[in-house]
Amino acid sequence: KSLTVMGLGYIGLPTAAAFASRKLKVCGVDVNEHAVNTINQGEIHIVEPELDIVVHSTVTEGYLKASLTPESADAFIIAVPTPFKGNKQPDLAYIEAAASAIAPVLKKGDLVILESTSPVGATEHMAKGLQEFRPDLRIPVSNRSSGEFDIYISHCPERVLPGHVMRELVENDRVIGGMTPKCAEKAKELYELLVEGECLLTDVRTAEMAKLTENAFRDVNIAFANELSMIADRLEIDVWELISLANRHPRVNVLQPGCGVGGHCIAVDPWFIVSRTPELAKLTRAAREVNDSKPDWVLEKVGLEIARISQLNPIKDVKDITVACFGLAFKPDIDDLRESPALNIAVSLADRHPSKLLVVEPNISKLPRSLMQKAELVDIDSALENADIILLLVDHAEFKEQASRIKQFVRVVDTRGVL
Ligand code: SAJ
């Protein structure tokens, strides 16, 4: 049996390598020539623990190879990005391109699975595209189709946590939506080669919505925590104490506020729900807006601290006030700066305030381009020595360990409750 995986990013490459490690002949396809060459040398172009070992061994043993164009296979998994456009409408261009690339090599009996997180209706849209390219094949194009078809179409959303992908690919339960019950069964047969969790079968629309629901659920709950943090601040209440007390109720579990919500999923996926049903998804939209507004609120807080220092020391020039940002990553204990509210806050600080900017980020060795020449990367000691204001943005383990020292600092804006 053979598998072609379209897209060799954070989901596609681990998925391709994991199936190849189960002795399936896997061809991974990407438009990025550098990625294709790197993988064919048994190396990886992204950061994910344990992925390098699996890619190296499966390429060496001949089970995994990468290519710029797809080849014929028994099953196809599409794992390409689904970003949104400026107007928060989903952009399905990558799915459409992947479908048009595999259409010429499809043959009777093949299975096509969309794994990309997608708005409801995207799998049907993809199937319609395939049908247009291949009028000679009978392809199910509507959710809950009935009858016999030549191609099996399913949606099986990925739900792995970056940093734990190789383990979660195997251990997590999978939701598998089929265009027909048989399509779902066929996809289940494939995933069972790899997945030790349960494979739960449903239709494609429900599977699409299940994935969006998981991330929107988390977004709404984080938004509640973020809103509480702003209310508590206004009322001069310690939000961390407040949440820990409320969470002592047996049916309450408030999440943790922060400087905003980052990453490539939780800040994007809820918009896919809003885009389909804008008049109904009021809470989902409000949560997105609360979380997106949190970085501005943090910037205002820092602005107030800068103003306070200027008032207390009228001779001190604002240019001589030093702010140290602790953390740039989008969440604790990773080096991933993409879509990070902490990074955006640091960049805005550098652009808006003439004060000096220091950055402490133990997980990186050089500043990203957006901060180069605007800030200086330093260690904790040097920041504590030189900063007038400490802005705690990410609760990295290193900062928690040093909490008692940081606490002695007079001006700290702690967005994560580290102190
Ligand atoms: N965050 C808070 N407070 C919290 C929890 C998280 O502010 O209490 C922030 C984080 O700092 C980060 C953002 O939310 O900026 C997202 O982090 P995360 O750890 O909640 O999630 P991701 O984006 O790394 O991964 C999520 C996961 N989804 C769920 O937990 C429901 C993962 O399982 C999905 O596979 C992934 O999205 C995805 O690819 O969709």
UniProtKB/TrEMBL annotation:
GO terms for molecular function: UDP-N-acetyl-D-mannosamine dehydrogenase activity. SUPFAM superfamilies: 6-phosphogluconate dehydrogenase C-terminal domain-like (SSF48179), NAD(P)-binding Rossmann-fold domains (SSF51735), UDP-glucose/GDP-mannose dehydrogenase C-terminal domain (SSF52413). Keywords: NAD, Oxidoreductase. Its EC number is 1.1.1.336. Residues 324-418 form the UDP-glucose/GDP-mannose dehydrogenase C-terminal domain. InterPro entries: 6-PGluconate_DH-like_C_sf, NAD(P)-bd_dom_sf, UDP-Glc/GDP-Man, UDP-Glc/GDP-Man_DH_C, UDP-Glc/GDP-Man_DH_C_sf, UDP-Glc/GDP-Man_DH_dimer, UDP-Glc/GDP-Man_DH_N, UDP_ManNAc/GlcNAc_DH. The keyword Oxidoreductase applies. Belongs to the UDP-glucose/GDP-mannose dehydrogenase family. NCBIfam families: NDP-sugDHase (TIGR03026), PRK11064.1 (NF008286). This is UDP-N-acetyl-D-mannosamine dehydrogenase.
